[in-house]
Amino acid sequence: MNPFLTKNRGLLLAYDQGLEHGPTDFGDRNFDPSFVMDLAIRGQFNGVVFQKGIAEQYYNGRVPLIVKVNGKTSLGKGEPLAGQNCSVKRAAEIGARAVGYTIYAGSTYENVMLEEFGHIQEEAHSLKMAAIAWIYPRGETIRNDTAPEIVAYAARLGLEIGADAVKIKYTGDPETFRWAVKCAGKTKVFMSGGPKASAEIEFLKQVRGALDAGATGLAVGRNVWQNSNPDKIALALRRLVIEDRAVENALRT
Ligand code: FBP
Predict the structure, then answer these.
(1) Is 166 helix (H, G, I), strand (E, B) or coil?
(2) Atom of ligand 1 nearest to the CA of 196
(3) Lower CB count within 10 Å: N or C terminus of the chain?
(4) Is 136 a catalytic residue?
(5) Does 77 qualify as catalytic in the annotation?
């Protein structure tokens, strides 16, 4: 994960929502991948996450790249399955230093995703790339995907399957999230951003809590590029994650 870390911390900008959620996530500026690429540079993000198509057409090499190699739309119903849509080899050709892969743990199809991730992880490591697992417990049997035992299970799963880093949801408080981080062992933990919070300060407090619990960093999308001042929130997040500042201090101009 070294290409994606500064002082052992990492701030990643995720922009695969066009596939996962569709254009309803976008407004008049952030629909354009160039806007997000430029934002990632100005905000000194440690990495940017694109699907293959965006990476091929818009990636300019100025921020380390993670190519998401699977995904699914939000159009279908039923148990979630995100199949592979890009090879590790192709991701490397486009310039990726890591591949990302979503596993819906608990889905009836989790075996398909676990098997596919196994191949991807081996191939990525043979090409000296990192393999990052987005682990989202989801499916009919998952009642609460931020329950501490569920989040800790997701974190542990990342370690068990050889992920270099795992991207998981926040439990809501540092005490329970600390257990998840411990369960991940040497696998680095990134908190997943989620839908745009109603108040910036609340989101920053959650990020601070995850860091205090031992998280390596944050992989965030909507809370940055849906913000009316994305550069300002990006700076505040950088101060929290990389400079390890307090929330009040991070927001100061
Ligand atoms: P956000 O910060 O916008 O939540 O992005 C993080 C992310 O993991 C994206 O990579 C992905 O598109 C999205 O969340 C998936 O969200 P959902 O919970 O709707 O599946």
Answers:
(1) strand
(2) 3
(3) C
(4) yes
(5) no
pLDDT in tens, 210-230: 999 999 999 999 999 999 999
What count of other Cβ atoms lies within 10 Å of the Cβ of residue 186?
6
Hey, is 101 helix, strand or coil? strand
The amino acid at 29:
R
In Å, what is the CA distance from 129 to each residue of 67, 97, 116?
Answer: 11, 5, 16
pLDDT number for residue 252: 84
Assess whether the C-beta atom of 25 lies below 6 angstroms from ligand 1: no
pLDDT exceeds 80 at position 253: no
Please tell me if the CB atom of residue 239 comes closer than 6 angstroms to any atom of ligand 1.
no
State the distance from the centre of ligand 1 to the C-alpha of 16, rounded, in angstroms. Answer: 8
Find the mean pLDDT for residues 146-158: 98
The pLDDT value recorded for residue 191 is 98
Cβ contacts of 180-184, under 8 Å, gap ≥ 24: 180/148, 180/151, 180/152, 180/154, 180/155, 180/213, 181/155, 181/213, 181/214, 181/215, 182/214, 183/152, 183/153, 183/155, 183/156, 183/159, 184/155, 184/156, 184/158, 184/159
Cα separation, 65 vs 245, whole angstroms: 26
